[in-house]
Amino acid sequence: MRIVIAEDDPLLREGLALLLRAESLDVVATTDNADAFLAAVDQHRPDTAIVDVRMPPTHTDEGIKAAVEARRRHPDLAVLVLSAYVEQAFATVLLHAGGHRIGYLLKERVGRVEQFLDALHRVAGGGTAIDPVVVAELLKRSHAGNTLHALTPRELEVLALMAEGLGNTAIAQQLVVTHGAVHKHIRNIFAKLDLDPASTADRRVTAVLHYLNANCKS
């Protein structure tokens, strides 16, 4: 896996590079601003980018804008965004830019090496990985008036775990239910959100987008 890192904190940036190289992953460039990041992506054509949300010069949303632009230029690029805070709107913006191969983690997750690497590999493999803390915040903001009002509490739980990027087996283990029960809940979620099985879009990703978008507007 070839990786570009965009992080303005030099300690975290070099720490990430050391960690990934120790895992035999190829860090082809490290950058500290959005322009340098985009140039590195264009030059090296990495498989995956790890991007800080807030970077110079304003430290607001340069990173998220750069991540979206990188995906526009290179649609197959996997992007794992790191943030110091729960910023639900940024997760929604990134997912709307193209649902596959996207991750959004809090920086504290980097210190939990196994979880961080699991999220990185999940995103690089074509999945999504949304930080459980972000998902928990979204759940708190869920209201009956949004597009998820038809879902049962259990279906919302399943959708929240889908938003984290968990597969059916992991969801079954988390909720202590059978694999068949999870499959049934997901089938119901797709039906209630009117997600056409004939659609070319990934229904899991589309369902997560419904979830994030509805809660960010709540």
UniProtKB/TrEMBL annotation:
Matching InterPro entries: CheY-like_superfamily (IPR011006), NreC/VraR/RcsB-like_REC (IPR058245), Sig_transdc_resp-reg_C-effctor (IPR016032), Sig_transdc_resp-reg_receiver (IPR001789), Tscrpt_reg_LuxR_C (IPR000792), WalR-like (IPR039420)
One GO term (biological process): regulation of DNA-templated transcription
Top-level taxon of origin: Bacteria
Domain Response regulatory: 2-122
Alphabetized GO MF terms: DNA binding
Keywords recorded for this protein, A-Z: DNA-binding, Phosphoprotein, Transcription, Transcription regulation
Domain HTH luxR-type: residue ranges: 144-211
Modified residue annotations for 4-aspartylphosphate: 52
Pfam family, one: Response_reg
Alphabetical list of SUPFAM superfamilies matching this protein: C-terminal effector domain of the bipartite response regulators, CheY-like
PANTHER family to which the protein is assigned, alphabetical: TRANSCRIPTIONAL REGULATORY PROTEIN NARL-RELATED (PTHR43214:SF24), TWO-COMPONENT RESPONSE REGULATOR (PTHR43214)
Protein name: Response regulator transcription factor
The organism of origin for this protein: Actinomadura soli
